[in-house]
Amino acid sequence: MANRHPSPQRAETPDQARDRTAELSADIETTGYYPQVVAAGLSDALADEPVLAYVLHHEPTFDRDEVRRHMTVLTLTPTRLVLAHTDEHPADDVLPEPYTSTTTEAVPLRTVDSVVVTRTVPAATAVGDVTSEDAAEALLTIGWGAVRRLDLEPAACSDPNCEADHGYTGSATADDFSLRVSAAADGGSAVQRLLGFARELSAVTSRPR
Quick one: where's region Disordered (predicted)? Predict the structure, then answer.
């Protein structure tokens, strides 16, 4: 007998409607860089939270005569910023054969206090209406108070002949995480993705807490 009183459908929340977990999984698979390893580490860190935004950065590094690759994945959930970094290593005292290591960190959004974006735009295009598509390079620096960079230099006064010791002057800036991408090395779309992620992160961290 048909149910004359079907249960009401549960409406999707905005976060559920924007869930990009499947898209992230597909992009990790497409890179071909230990996709099962990267996905497993990220899945544990996400703990079933939906993915609202993400960015992947896959690049090689040179280790003596060998090329090593590594991947960084930034994901944004409704409550956290999740970072995952996977490296490949040669055989050593830890393991007698090549291996990978994955490190994840989950940062509550309420603790993110600094989102710094530096974009590089060629002077030839820096006229008229400049958009994010004109950026040749982008650097995203995120701070949540775990690491701070201290830059010091000798202090001086306005007297050019003064030989007194004025001590040091400097600045302390948040430097928990930085990621740089360029159109030349990573493609223009990679720059756009990083800038898009920065916009999403800036939006959620600017809301009242």
Answer: 1-20
Cα–Cα distance measured from residue 73 to residue 56, given in angstroms and rounded to the nearest whole number: 5
Contact indicator for 100, 88 with CB cutoff of 8 Å: yes
Residues β-bridged to residue 99: 89
Looking at the 3D structure of the chain, how many domains does it have? Answer: 2
Q: Would you state the structure tokens that stand for residue 38, as one six-digit string?
A: 């990267």
The residue segments making up the domain with residue 146 are 112-125+133-196
Judge whether residue 11 has pLDDT over 50. Answer: no
DSSP string of 145-206, one letter each residue: SS-EEEEEEE---S-TT------EEEEEEE-SEEEEEEHHHH-HHHHHHHHHHHHHHHHHHT
Does residue 203 lie within any of the structural domains? no
**From the CA atom positions of the chain, what is the Rg in Å?**
22
Closest CA to 45 of 71, 74, 65, 69: 74
Between residues 9 and 160, the one the model is more confident about:
160
Decide which of 175 and 114 is more confident.
114
Contacts of 44 (CB under 8 A, 6+ apart): 104
Residue 204 has a pLDDT of 93
Shared domain check, 22 and 104: yes
